[in-house]
Structure formats: C-alpha cells, structure tokens
Amino acid sequence: MKIKVGELIVKYMERLGIEYIFGMPGAHILPVYDCLYDSSIRSILVKHEQGASFMAGGYARASGKIGACITTAGPGATNLVTGIANAYADRQPLLIITGETSTHIFGKGGLQESSGEGGSIDQDALFKGITKYNKIVERTDYLPNILNRASNLLLSPNAGPVLLSFPFNIQKELVDDGLLDRIRTERRAYAVPDASQPASALADLVLAAENPVIVAGYGCIRSGGQKVVSELSEMMHIPVATSLKGKGVINERSEYSLGSLGVTSYGNAYQYIAEKSDLLIFLGAGFNERTSYLWDDNLIGNKKIAQVDINEDQLEKVFKADVAIHGDVKEIVTGIVERIKANGKNVRKHNNIRKTIKGLAGNAAESDAAVFQSRFPLVEKFFARLEKVFPENIQIFDDNLIFAQNFFNVTTGNRYYPNSGISSLGHAVPAAIGARFAENKPTFAILGDGGFQMCCMEIMTAVNYDIPLNVIMFNNSTMGLIRKNQSQQYGGRYIDCDFVNPDYRFLARSFGINHKRVATESDLDHVFGDTDFANATNLIEIMIDKNTFPNYVTKR
Fold first, then answer.
1. CATH fold of the domain at 377-543
2. Which residues contact 401 (CB under 8 A, 6 or more apart)?
3. Predicted confidence (pLDDT) at residue 264 exceeds the cutoff of 80
4. 106: which DSSP letter?
C-alpha cells in the first residue's frame, strides 16, 4: 500500500516506541503534523523550540527511552541548538524531525530555507558537531538506509541526537508502506568485548589494596548497576565517591558514602582520596574539570587506577589506568563480586571508615576552605526538609547544582539529574516537564532567578497539559556565579550580573499556579505543611543574599 512519507515517518516513530513528541508546528512541517493527528504519539506544543529539545532530553533521561522533538524549517530548527548540544554532551537518544523548503526551490531564496544552497543557512553544517547523524532527505529511494542508520544510533549503548530534515514536497511523496519492515526499530543485545581477563585483574587489585575507593559516575545508573556497586562497596568495605551526575549510585546516607567528588563539594571525598586511598576504581565516571578539581595530581598520583566504561572513548582519556575495561558497568562489577566471593577473601574490615569520614567532615567545617561556612542556612534547611519528606520517589532536575551537591543526600530511591551536559541556563524547567510526562512522581526543577527568566514561559506548557511541577527558584537578583567570580577574582568590579526581578507572586497568579515565598525558617513550615507537591504546579522562591558566596575559587 502506498502512503505519504509524512505518514511513514510517524509510523516509524511509533515502532521506535515514541510516546510523546515536543515541538512547535510551522508551514514546512505541517504534512507530518497532519499525520500525527491520527497517531498514538501525543504531540506537545511548547512555547519555544529550545524548550522542546530540553523536554525531549528530560523525557529521555527519566524514561530511558528515545526522546523526540519536531519543528519547522529555519528558525524552528536553529532554536533547537542548545538543547541538542546538551543531549549530545549527555549521550541522550533524541530523534529530531524538522521541515524544510521544497527541493525545487533550493538555492532560490525560499522562506526559511536551510539547504545551504544559494547562500542560505547550511543546516547540515550547523548541526554536524552536535548530532550523531543529521540529514536533509532530498529523495525517497534511500529512505530505508537513512532510517536504519538513525535507528542504529538511537538504540546503541552510546546513543545521541539524530536529526532528520524533510523538505515539504518529500513529506507528501508516496512510498510503499512495506519499507517499514526493512527498518530496524527494536533494541538488540550488543556484543561487548570479552572482559573476563581484565575483570579478574581488577578483582585482584581490589583484594590487594589497603584503601580502595570507588568513583562512581552516571554510567552506573545508565547500566542499572546501583545495587551491585553497593554490594561490592559493602562486601569489601570500600567507600564510594560519586561524580555529580552519579549522585544516588549508592545511598548517600550510607556509612560508605563519601558524597560527591568535585571542586564545588565540601571536600570529604577529595581529602579521603588524596590522603588515604591506594586504589581508585572509576566506574562509568569521567574525570572532567569539575570532578577532578581541574585534574589535580593529588587525586591520582601514587595510586593504582582501574577504569570501567561502556564508552571506549572515555577509557584513559585523561589518565593512564593499570586496568582499563571496555564494558557494561553492571556486568563487569557483577563479575568482580562473583570472583571475590569465589576467592573467599572478602573478610577485610575497615571499621574506621565512618569515623574517618566524620573526621574529614569536621575538619572541612572548621577550615577556611569549607565551601559554604554556614552561609546559606535557609537553603540548607530547605534541602534537609525535602530529604526528610521525600526519602524516595521524586525526581529532581537541577540547574543550580552547588546547593544540592552539598545539602541533599540522594538515595537509590530518588533520581537526581544535574544540568551537567553543557550546563546551560534555562534547562531545568523544560527538562523537568519532559520527565514528568515519563514518570508520574513528584518532580522538582531547581534553578536561580537568572535561569528562571530564560525558561519560565514553559511553565504554561505544564499548565496547558495539566502537568504537576515544583519550581524551586533561588532569588538574589543577580547572576550568582558571575557575581561570585567578579567578587573573588576581579576586585568587585561588577558588570552585567545584577537585575530587577518581577513580582513572582503576580507572575505565578497570571500563570494560574501556586506561589510560596521563603524568607525565614517559619516560611519553610508553611511550604512543607501546605504545598501539594504531587498534584499541583508550584513556584517556590527562596530568598538569598546576592553578596553571600560559596567559598571555592576556580583557578584556570
């Protein structure tokens, strides 16, 4: 049977298991939108295309499925750039569908043309560096090849964004619907190189070490390896530090948790690793600028190093490992646990770990190097209350990062998603909305007032689709990180960091959502006593002093 290409695209997405597609229609993509009308896929109208790509990314992170967004040609596509770049950095599987002018007017100056012909915008060049694959589909005879390549990349262990652009006339061309049967749309098991020998070598390193430390990253969560990493930690009494994205790999209330490793953290993990450890075991964790304290040699010097990662490009990217294993974290760590159990040498005791960690925390609190030095008591109390009220079953999208990194203990029953891709402002609200479509659980977007004003219009998307959401906004009328740097490194020469905020009470009222303002500890009692976090949309602003800064200084 003959069907239009627009219908084939929609059926292809249905077979991929796509449930929602976030976007905004325009004339050049309406043939596909018309086919969505009768589809099982629910289209979600956003307020700005950047919000669409952030929502698709948030949906992908929360669901583990393919996120999707759709826009028209020209500015519709270009407005997606930041969200796509974020997904590329985080290896999120995103399918992006865009429209394009008809092929017969390529190079003639068509409205919103992006073919790259005749001096028009070159969309292919624009997206080349932030997608795994992008293609303007100018003919239908190679369509199955294009869709198969898209599927292979979207369904791979190291997925990323795929952008397909369809000219208006191509969307309306007829093709045989049997093409769908030639396109792969289901996941398959990927063969991983035999890692038994290096895994055995890693088990030997663990058994021989006096003070091993696990550095756990997001790769542990992506592989579903939290339970087995916790088992290895408890069985062999190995403390665990996590990357920011890895918060929650083990329960951060555990006696073996060192907390988050990074330049903006309290420093327990850094001190323990630098002073105590003789073996570092990196599990699905990069050693980026934030985690490594700008690649401080004290963290890896004079230590054995082992690394496990599903992404071969991450192996030994910034350090030489004694054992480097390309494989799935869950599978490899399971093998290590089994080898150690079979060896019968899992009797080593380190009863002083908790005492040592408490000592390090105490030293940090008394030190001039402490990150906060009790400067943000209201924020600290907020996160303590949040942790107590929601020990599990919530998801948090965090653009602010530094407060939750230090004040919020993530359990294995909660999901914490820091904005760590390209760390762009304006991410948390749309990403949280996308995640709320995927997971029916209380969802929080945490951000500053500067970032809020870059994405607050998407709150109306949540309102339009009756999506409950909790927006936690820190209000200090400044771009806090910029003001901190200008204070600490530029002699207080403040420029373009301060601004005037709107009255958020009236803004919330105009959106038709609830508003709470927290300026005192008693205000927190009202927030946690009166707020419906599960079924309502709430804007909660927490007042902080613009001249109070975290104490870390980043040197470059």
1. Rossmann fold (3.40.50)
2. 244, 264, 418, 419, 420, 423
3. no
4. T
Q: Does residue 472 sit in helix, strand or coil?
A: strand
Taking alpha carbons only, the member of 160, 164, 75 closest to residue 121 is 75
Cβ-contact 242, 251 below 8 angstroms: no
Q: What stretch(es) of the chain map to CATH 3.40.50.970? A: 2-182, 377-543
Q: Domain 196-366 carries which CATH code? A: 3.40.50.1220
* Nearest by Cα to 378 from 208, 496, 280, 525: 525
Domain 2-182 grouped into CATH 3.40.50.970? yes
Report residue 93 CA to chain centroid gap: 12
Rounded Cα distance between 204 and 132, Å, is 38
Q: How confident is the model over 292-347, as pLDDT tens digits?
A: 767 778 888 888 999 999 888 888 888 888 899 998 999 999 989 988 888 775 55
What stretch(es) of the chain map to CATH 3.40.50.1220?
A: 196-366
Which amino acid belongs to residue 222?
R
pLDDT in tens, 110-157: 788 888 788 888 888 999 999 999 999 999 999 999 999 999 999 998
**3-state SS of 201-262?**
HHHHHHHHCCCEEEEECHHHHHCCCHHHHHHHHHHHCCCEEECCCCCCCCCCCCCCEEEECC
Beta-ladder partners of 304? 279
Tens digits of residue pLDDT in 433-491: 999 999 999 999 999 999 999 999 999 999 999 999 999 999 999 999 899 989 989 99
**Torsions phi, psi of 189, nearest 5?**
-70, 135
Q: What share of the chain is helix, strand, coil (3-state, %, to 5)?
A: 40, 20, 40
pTM strictly above 0.90: yes
Helix axes 268-276, 353-366, angle to 10 degrees: 120
Q: Are 516 and 536 in contact (CB under 8 A)?
A: no
pLDDT at 442: 97
CA 155 – CA 94 distance, rounded (Å): 10
Token pair of 117, please?
Answer: 């012909």
Which amino acid, 26? G
Q: What is the DSSP string of 106-130?
A: TTTT-TT--BSGGG--BHHHHHGGG
